């Protein structure tokens, strides 16, 4: 089933950057790898910066509550 889903490009969730409020990562060590993934996307600099600003870790989230 997973291989079939991977091969069909219409079977993924589509959204705008404005739809994303937070990008929650497990640890601070995951941030640099995630930024590399963002950099590999076809985004303009404003969209890239918006996504990076939305990155937060579980620890930061936990401290806020």
Describe this structure in words.
The structure is a single chain. The protein has 65 residues and is mainly α. It has one domain (13-64). Helices cover 48% and strands 9% of the residues. The chain has 4 helices and 2 strands. It has a two-stranded parallel sheet with strand order 1-2. The longest helix has 9 residues, at 31-39. The radius of gyration is 14 Å and the shape is globular. The N and C termini lie far apart (39 Å). The model has no long low-confidence stretch (mean pLDDT 86).
Entry keywords:
single chain; 65 residues; mainly alpha; two-stranded parallel sheet; 2 strands; globular
Topology (elements, then pairings):
Layout: H1 2-7, E1 23-25, H2 31-39, H3 45-53, E2 55-57, H4 58-64
Parallel strand pairs: 1-2
In short:
Helices cover 48% and strands 9% of the residues. It has 65 residues and is mainly alpha-helical. It has one domain (13-64).
Strand tally, please?
A: 2
Number of domains: 1
- Beta-strand percentage range: 5-15%
Strands across the major sheet, in which order? Answer: 1-2
**Succession of helices and strands:** HEHHEH
- The averaged pLDDT comes out at 86
What is the CA-based Rg, rounded? 14 Å
């Amino acid at each position: 089933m997973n291989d079939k889903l991977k091969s069909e490009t219409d079977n993924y969730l589509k959204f705008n950057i404005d739809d994303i409020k937070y990008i929650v990562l497990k640890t601070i060590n995951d941030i640099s790898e995630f930024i590399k993934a963002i950099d590999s996307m076809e985004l303009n600099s404003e969209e890239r910066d918006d996504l990076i600003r939305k990155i937060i870790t579980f620890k930061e989230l936990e401290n806020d509550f």
